Structure formats: structure tokens, C-alpha cells
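Repro case for the chain-ordering regression, as requested:
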Amino acid sequence: MANNQAEIAMIGDRDSVLLAKAAGLAVFDETDAEKASKLIHRLAREGCKVIFLTEPLYAACGEAVSKYRYESFPAIIPIPDSKGSSGVAMAQIKSNVEKAIGADILFSEE
Amino acid sequence: MAALNVKPTRMELSNLKKKRKVAARGHKLMKDKRDEMVRRFIVYVRRNRALREEVEQKLAAAMQGFVLARASMRAEAVEEALCYPARPAQIKVSAQHVLSVVVPKLELVSVGNVELPYGIVGTSAELDAAVQAFAELLPLLIELAEVEKTCNRLADEIEKTRRRVNALEYVMIPQFDEAIRTIKMKLDENERGNLTRLMKTKDMLAQKE
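-- result from build under test --
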């Protein structure tokens, strides 16, 4: 799988990922957290660079996500699914700020 | 604080002084690194947040469009239209360094116009619009991925550096100072002892004569 390697993948429920397929992403229809975790590990091994994960799955696959969180690749990015955003991703940014600066100084403004 | 266990010799003193100097310099450098990283992190995280908001909004719109499209067409027709493989989206991946932190740089290989991977006969306009919207969103998504990864890695590195700075500032350097002080006192004490002994001997010799 050298040349036709999918560099961008998307994992999520059927409704959410079908659209990505038309845009040329490698799409995996998966809603089970355990299977999705395995899939993430497999994709990472195969050299996938960016994995988009729907928010419910992102919350469910905490272990797999945190394993790759501080490595250069793959970047695992939560995206809202067809039901809309649940705020997991924003919470993630917030926790980053808290971790780096010690206090949430950016989001407390408003 | 647990003092360093060192022998009170001049050799040790000079070694400790050198170590203290290195630690102080390391501390200064680390502190500068941390400050600069925090500055850059703030820039990145602001962008991350703006991007995330934009993406979430647009993606939600695209997804809703898609749900509508699915409602307006037969389910099989949608599946059929979308099951043809589209031209795979490709990205150019390279690494860049932000203060010696390796962060990914992702670039979408430009695809020009959005091509629909299916014929337009038999599919609804809503579907086309949704696919189009998503394809237009793709560069944003890739940028989001890059920025978010950078933020993650920077946050991690900042935490590490902060720990190092604190360890140097509050543990190592005070320990060195303490050890240097102890050795100095011991050496001075020895010196005084020597001097007294000498004076005493001189007195004794003078009395004999």
C-alpha cells in the first residue's frame, strides 16, 4: 500500500461519512467504539496522516485517541456528525489551554 | 530540602560551582523557550478555535443538506451515487519545527474544481450541493487538523518545559547553593582550626625558649 495509500480517513456513522466519500476521503462506516479503536490503530500503522472521527466516537475511543495525541502522525480530529456538534472538540481545545498555560485565559473572556 | 551528599573538598567545590553555572544557564534558556512557546501557543490556539467554530458551523450545514438530499431521493439511489470511488483527496505532508517541536504541515494537493463522482442524472440538486459544500470545506478541515495537532504537541511540550524550569529553579539550583555553602563553611572551619593550631604551637615554642 505505497501509492494508493489513503492519507485522509474518516470514521463515523453512515449518515455522516457518506458525504466525505464523494470528496475522496477513505471512509469507514463504524459506530462500535472497540472496532473503531482497532481501525484507528490499523490506519496509524499503515501510515494514514489524518483521521477524522465523529464526536461520539471520539469520546468513546479515548484510549486510542490519547495514544496518538502527542505523536506527529496521525492527527486524529473530532468533527461534528450529522446530529450537530456536542462540544467535545471545544472542550479539547480548552483543556489544551489549561494544560499549557495553567489557567483558561482565552475562553473565560466571554 | 535534602542536601546533596558531597565531600567537603576544594575539588568538589569547584565542580559544584561549575554545575551551578550550567544549571543557571540552562534555567534561563528553558525559561525563554517556555515563554516563547506559550506566546506561539496562544496564537495557534486562537486560530484553532476560530477554525473549529467555522468548520463546525459549515460542516453542520453540509450534513443537514445531505440529510435533506437523502430524504428527497431513494436511499438506494444515494448509495449508488456515492459508492463510486471519487478521486482520492491527496495531501502533501511535511514536518516543520516550532522551537524544536516537530509539528506536521499538511497541504491539500489542489484538486481544482469539484468534480462529482457520479452522473447528475438521477440525483437531486440537494445532493450535489451537499457534496460541493463538503468538498469546499476540505481545505479548512485539513488546516484544522494541522493547527489542532500543533496545539496538542505544543501544549504537551510546554508542560514538559515548565516542569523542567521548575525543577531547575526550585530543586537543583537551591540544592547546589546549599551544598556550596556547606562546603565553604567546612573549609573555612578547617582553615580557622589550622590557624589556631599554628598560633598555639607558636606560643608553646615561644614559652620554651
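Ordering looks correct now. The CA atoms of residues 5 and 75 of chain B lie 77 Å apart.
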